[in-house]
User: Fold this.
Amino acid sequence: MNISALQKERALYQPKLPKSLRGTIQMTEGAKTQSVADQEEIAKLFPNTYGMPLIAFEEGSTKNEFAPVNVGVILSGGQAPGGHNVISGIFDGIKRIHPHSKLFGFLGGPGGLVKHEYVELTAEIVDEYRNTGGFDIIGSGRTKLEEEEQFEKALEIAKDLSLNALVIIGGDDSNTNACVLAEYYAAKNTGVQVIGCPKTIDGDLKNEMIETSFGFDTATKVYSELIGNIQRDANSAKKYWHFIKLMGRSASHIGLECALKTQPNICLISEEVAEKKETLSEIVEYMAEVVANRAARGDNFGVALIPEGLVEFVPEMKKLISELNDLLAEGTKTAEIFQNVKKSYRLEWVAEKISKESAVVFKSLPAGIATQLTLDRDPHGNVQVSLIETEKLLGEMVKTKLDEMKLAGEYSGKFGAQYHFFGYEGRCAAPSNFDADYCYSLGYTAAVLVASGKTGYMSSVRNLTSPANEWIAGGVPITMMMNMEKRHGHMKPVIQKALVKLDGAPFKYFLSKRGEWAYKTDYVYPGPIQYFGPTEVCDQPTETLKLEKA
Assistant:
């Protein structure tokens, strides 16, 4: 593998570990736990892994004697900075437990486990990937581990390799699958443990025991650098409004964190839109008002941050999408008729077939977006919301609104829009010092959980606003995070997604500053991630975490 000078230097970086993991380790068990909701149902579904205690690792006085362990590791779902450090943490952890321990990486995600495709991860391989971004050491995939047949295929290879445990590194869905797998293996007394690790740049896998998911820090630093660059360009050229869509379909954590880092003129928060039941028209009016007020000050430029999943949080858009899904569902009579309608008349035809309220919203959309809503379907026949160019939708609607305001004499500025979507740019970045340390600690903690014979736990490292030395390592039962939700028409146990809390400190602080940032050009230009230098520059956690723990 060709490596850059930075990568060569980063390979020498030794991630920091909590004090409790550096010497003799002692495990303490806390109170028994219960799920966040639907306790009876979850307890029934997980009789072998429900109600387990919280675990903390502390400095011990008696030397631990562990037998060698064989561990399988899987990267599941989308990439997030720091995945390679989780793996190097597991590797170093199990080797310290016993030098004859072995680590096997399943290739291409959970699918590799089912197909029995793997590689033994040796020191030579692992050393090449320390402190690097990406998941390319073994690859990732989105196969869901849900079927008994898959569990049995996985058990075959676990027996062949004499695996003591599987570590699944993933988001809420992947860790839900890890929990189901742990229960299945515990019920059958297979002796195979399952441990989860919290990964997602979206930041929506968190709770009191999982203060942040890994990759969120690095990704938001990457996006914030790009936003800062754009803000500086806008402030230099004194023209263009930049509409920037950011990753975050289910929650707006990325948008909020980037706003706290860069102080843009507008940042929409999906959860607030849903709470206030805002209409698309109200959102556009708010944005147009900010544009007009800045223009009145002579500033015909600005920056707006938009979460990727915004349209699904606008009640009237949610209703419209639901009606379109029913109207144009594959195999229905109406979908068949639609295909035979003249292209020039299709939008009109759709508007006549949906409710009056939805028709009003549908007709207000730019033609390109309305057409996209009728054509692009996923394999289930539903609108592909992730493909909707929300930034262009809002930009075009703001322009239309400003033209109306100009005719009414309420606006006399110039408006030009530029559009951006920051997603893949942040997923495989070289991890920040925070993520390098945090991920390594998560992996090391997973190794200790395996050595301690635990299953159905997620690796947990807390107290993250303190120096790494003072972080608290342990394990949290995955069942503790679960509730029942409707998925594909059936009630299923899943890890509860963490949305932006409107009564939380990060949002409240943003709210207190939003008006000021809207009209002033009070931008912050964070610059690139710094890997070398003073702690104040290199090792800081996210603004979100700092405000939550203040």
